[in-house]
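Table S2 (text version). Query chain:
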Amino acid sequence: MNTIGDKYIDLVRRSAASKQLGRDVEKGLSHAYMLVSPDRLGLDVLTDLFVAAASGVEDAYRRVCSGTLTDVITLPENDGKVTVRDIDFLTETAYITPTELDRKFYVISFGETMNEAAQNKLLKTLEEPPSVTMIIIKTASESAMLPTVRSRCRIVELKPFALGELNEVIDLLYAGNTRLPVARAANRGMISEAERLISGEIYSEMYELVVDMLKNMRRSSDIARFASRILKYKDNIADILEYIELLLRDCFAVTAMKPYLALNEAGITDTREISKSYAPEVVIRIMPLLTRARSRLKLNGNAAGMVDELLFSMLEVKSKWK
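Corresponding structure-token output:
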């Protein structure tokens, strides 16, 4: 059973996506669904709740999570890429009568990993769906799916949770955890992110590094030192960029005399100190630099060059507004 996801059932049930699927269970189900969200854990909980409700059997949620409902088939068997072989299995067995439920559920995880050949193989079954089968595609991105596949599915998006709602849950779950402030500040409304931040010491370390850098990077001679420290986390540079943006946005809130808008309430003392060096005009001009840094990182992966350019540019912006 997904015990991590169980902690967030009530939160997911309150989502617009869950309510939309609940209405379908009451009024009439489609033969195929595409459930969309980069929040992998949130999407897992949403799917399990939906399949349980649509199955119509007692104790369905527990049995879906534990994998003991024979007519609920998850593909691929192991976490990873969906292959043509997985889709072959689905198309070859989709017309077989269910053994326990009124219909069979094929749940395709990591739909965004399906190549064009696999999606085209699936398309025929989506076009001529057997009455005894429902296909559910979970994907981090709707755009990763072919238009022909999308058009034959009912698309339901799980949007990021309101920060106040998600933070209320993780406050109750992890009161006293030293990583809680970072998890509250940087989860972006996603259950997966909150759990990742809570469970990994590395994220707290990176956050503290960013705080130190924003407080103490004052001259060009400081850049090499901080760049070297950042590059120790070369596989998590994107997270570091998120933390820089988060802290600078909070600085903007503080200098605008609206500290209640700061996302990281627990780190408000650090934010006040950092804001002395980052006036609103500075923050406004640094934000496009972060967007450019993300693009560079995604396009060519040259982390060292990107980090050097970003830190020099940030320092240049600061010096112009002193």
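Notes on Table S2: The radius of gyration is 23 Å. The mean pLDDT is 89.
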